[in-house]
Amino acid sequence: MQITDTIADMLTRIRNANSAKHDSVDIPASNMKKAIAQILVDEGYVKSYQTINDDKQGIIRIFLKYQGPNKTPVLQGLRRVSKPGLRIYTKCEDMPKVMRGIGTAIISTSKGVMTDKQARRENVGGEVLAFVW
């Protein structure tokens, strides 16, 4: 089965594993997905990730983060913004704020994949990949 939107597939796998309270989730690897996973780690939404070599494409294993004894997920929501059928681009001045600055927008810029805060700091715009809160 061919997946057309691999980033949406990644976000859906994380969302499903998070709601099922799994410890980790495996995702087929790519450089874009590794950059998104690194942003999720840096922003504190997931514990960590590791890449596993399987002599093919590779696998990214993301370790999910919970708080409290009843395992309340730290990651409350993930939403894909720019889709293959409708790309959403933004300038630095019009950069979206997720939940009035509480959440994070993941932006693909000419300087790499970064958060909305980093893009504002570096004064670059780009494609809005996803919202995380």
Can you characterise this structure?
Helices cover 25% and strands 33% of the residues. A hairpin with a 4-residue loop joins β4 and β5. It has 133 residues and is α+β, with helices and mostly antiparallel strands. The mean pLDDT is 95.
In brief:
With 133 residues, this protein is α+β, with helices and mostly antiparallel strands. The protein has three helices and ten strands, in the order H-E-H-E-E-E-E-E-E-E-E-H-E.
Q: Characteristics of this structure?
A:
three-stranded antiparallel sheet; five-stranded antiparallel sheet; 133 residues; globular; alpha+beta
Helix content: 10-25%
Q: How would you sum up the global shape? A: globular
How many H/I helical runs? 3
Please summarize the sheet with the most strands.
5 strands, antiparallel
Label the structural class. alpha+beta
The rounded Rg comes to: 15 Å
Report the average pLDDT across residues. Answer: 95
The span between the termini is 30 Å
Element layout with pairings:
Elements: H1 6-19, E1 24-28, H2 31-42, E2 46-52, E3 59-64, E4 66-67, E5 72-73, E6 78-80, E7 89-90, E8 104-109, E9 112-115, H3 116-122, E10 126-132
Antiparallel strand pairs: 1-3, 2-3, 4-5, 6-10, 7-10, 8-9, 8-10
